[in-house]
Design brief:
heterodimer, A: alpha/beta, two-stranded parallel ribbon, 10% strand, globular, B: alpha/beta, 9 helices, 11% strand
Chain lengths: 418, 212
């Protein structure tokens, strides 16, 4: 099949599911960080630190695996940078949304560790987080989050920017700007090359769950959990202060020029939400501190005609029913450790269901085991439309066996048709 | 059981931090046998474990319980003086090489210590040799390999293979733990058991140690 024809076929398949219809078969949306590198014979550090090698590897994988979409995500969580630049430099958000290895030696951020830098050459990049905001600083943050992020948090997060106005800081900012431009260009190039091979990409906006901004970037996971017990009112006020900023982030990043929509051939705009504290919180905490603010951001994002693309990391079982409070069929929900059958039982087709084989199966299983797993899941869950997100959580593991990934694709073609 | 003991246990199970630590201090100041207080801690952690497994407790609750336990141990330890807390045995725990996450490992460590085990915590990003050395030095009943990342699965396999190659595999039971572990991963790694949550991990470690 010609690439243009493949592009249209894959896009139609994805669009049908997102618009609540059943396509010819269940589409496979692949997310990779290291897998493409290993497949092409590289180490993690090669594809993480070198955009040209990542492109080479991603295109090799794209040629050999018949996915419906490919996202090669080499960065780590960096929404804090988006939030920091939200008012003064919103055009930087798409490139700054993820922390990249190339930024790390310049910014010297305290959150991340990278292969070939702090970690061994073939290790997976890791987001560690850190307590940036002291517990006494909640009020200062609540009063003016933008000021706090720029003047207090940023110099602590990025030790390369620790002394605003210093030669080191000025130089770091200048180099960071150049890297943002280079990264943006390489991403555009990769997406264009994938499109030329028949792989569609949806325009993507960026937002986040308000409480997760506090947990991931400002207070650290352990501290935010303890804060919920010790200082519930402060946490609640901080979440309220962040909520309009996250709506604004979706608005700014989801405003896609008509010519881009035309070039990509779709009017769908996805808005990405990775959830992190959902599995940690008990239902009382979830209902009080997490869900109301997230729901508000989601509702506003849906009102902007974007499609929230939510990664429900870990086990979301205890909170599934809250999804019924959202308008029907308007969010793509990727489930990690929650059994998709349970999702169907509790919320039916209220959300656009996405799930996949776990990485343990893609790493340690056999093609036959993968086939069995996919057959069972697709038989039980595909009615009403569904998408496959292989590996779930972080996408396809760097250690996944290529023959198992191929078995997954084959199984979707066998059992995922309508 | 006296009212104060029941109150103390309930305060911990209810995660009432202030009340629980106040009661611990009062009991120590009143000269109560610290072993009785320790026994109550074990009773409370047992109940917490059961509630977690019944779905009435969540990770955040365990983290808060661990935080309270840590503070109580600070209050309690001086009260033992020269008297040694009898250990149920040694457990070696650590996050495997290539992974630096430790929230789950730290909860397991706090719960195991409250249970009366001696825990040798190797920390994060530990190569196979660190586990091998710890097995030789500490003669643990169980080695617990922890990791959050999917990539930890391969690292755990390498660690178990290295323990085998060092001729130590028959000396210890090995459990793997973390959000990405499951039956498939356990088989692939060659471990004796697995757990993706802290309380079932502790229950399984006790079983592997033969003290369940």
């Amino acid at each position: 099949m010609e690439p243009a024809e493949l592009y249209r076929q894959r896009l139609d398949r994805l669009e049908a599911v997102i618009k609540g219809k059943e396509p010819d078969r269940v589409p496979i949306t692949a997310m990779v960080t290291i897998f493409q590198g290993h497949y092409a014979g590289y180490k993690a550090k090669d594809v993480i630190l070198d955009a040209a090698k990542n492109k080479d590897a991603t295109l090799k994988m794209a040629a050999d695996f018949d996915f419906d979409s490919i996202t090669a995500l080499t960065g780590l969580e960096g929404t804090i940078m988006s939030m920091t630049f939200l008012k003064s430099a919103p055009e930087l958000i798409p490139a700054a949304r993820f922390l990249q290895a190339q930024y790390h030696p310049i910014l010297k951020d305290v959150y991340t560790k990278w292969p070939g830098i702090e970690l061994e050459d073939d290790a997976h990049p890791q987001f560690i987080g850190k307590e940036i905001m002291k517990v006494e600083e909640y009020d200062q943050f609540i009063e003016n989050p933008t000021e706090y992020l720029n003047r207090v948090a940023l110099p602590r997060i990025c030790t390369g920017l620790a002394e605003p106005g210093s030669p080191e800081s000025n130089a770091a900012f200048s180099k960071y700007g150049a890297q943002l431009a280079a990264f943006g260009a390489s991403q555009g190039d990769l997406i264009g090359s994938l499109a030329a091979m028949g792989y569609p990409t949806f325009p993507t906006a960026w937002s986040y769950s308000p409480l997760d901004v506090l947990g991931d970037f400002l207070r650290d996971i352990k501290n935010i959990v303890i804060d919920l017990f010790r200082y519930p009112d402060k946490v609640k006020q901080a979440v309220e202060a962040l909520t309009p900023m996250l709506i604004e982030s979706a608005r700014i990043t989801g405003t896609v020029p008509p010519e881009m929509k035309k070039a990509l051939g779709t009017d769908i705009v996805e808005c990405f939400f990775p959830l992190h504290l959902n599995e940690y919180l008990n239902p009382k905490q979830y209902d009080e501190f997490y869900w109301p603010a997230l729901k508000k951001v989601l509702e506003e994002t849906i009102a902007m005609r974007q499609t929230p693309y939510i990664l429900f990391e870990g086990r979301h079982d205890a909170h599934l029913e809250t999804l019924l409070e959202l308008p029907k069929g308007k969010v793509i929900a990727v489930f990690d450790k929650t059994d998709p059958r349970k999702v169907r039982d509790v919320v039916g087709d209220h959300v656009i269901l996405s799930s996949g084989p776990p990485n343990s199966l893609l790493i340690g299983g056999t093609p036959q085991k993968v086939d069995d797993y996919m057959k069972s899941m697709l038989t039980d869950c595909k009615e009403g439309g569904m998408m496959i997100y292989p590996g779930v959580d972080g996408g396809i593991s760097g250690d996944a066996r290529p023959e198992n990934v191929q078995a997954m694709i084959k199984a979707v073609k066998k059992y995922g048709t309508y | 059981m006296t009212d104060v003991r029941e109150d103390f246990i309930n305060a911990l199970v209810d995660l009432d931090e202030t009340k629980c630590i106040d009661l611990a201090k009062q009991r120590v100041e009143a000269g109560e046998d610290p072993f009785t207080i320790l026994e109550d801690l074990r009773e409370a952690t047992d109940r917490i474990g059961n509630m977690f497994e019944e779905g009435r407790f969540f990770v955040s609750d365990l983290m808060m319980a661990g935080e309270i336990l840590k503070q109580i141990m600070v209050v309690l330890k001086p009260a033992f003086g020269d008297r040694k807390i009898e250990s149920k045995g040694t457990i070696v725990i650590g996050t495997v090489e290539g992974d630096v996450h430790d929230i789950g490992k730290n909860i397991v460590t706090a719960l195991l210590e409250a249970e009366g085990f001696t825990v040798v915590d190797l920390g994060v990003d530990q190569p196979p040799e660190a586990f091998i050395n710890a097995i030789r030095e500490n003669k643990p009943l169980v080695v617990s390999l922890s990791g959050l990342l999917t990539e930890a699965i391969d690292s755990m396999k390498k660690t178990v293979d290295a323990i085998k190659a060092a001729g130590l595999r028959d000396n210890v039971k090995i459990i793997v733990g973390g959000g990405r572990t499951d039956e498939e991963a356990k088989e692939y790694i060659g471990a004796d058991d697995w757990s993706d949550d802290a309380t079932s991990g502790v229950r399984k470690i006790k079983k592997l140690a033969g003290v369940a």
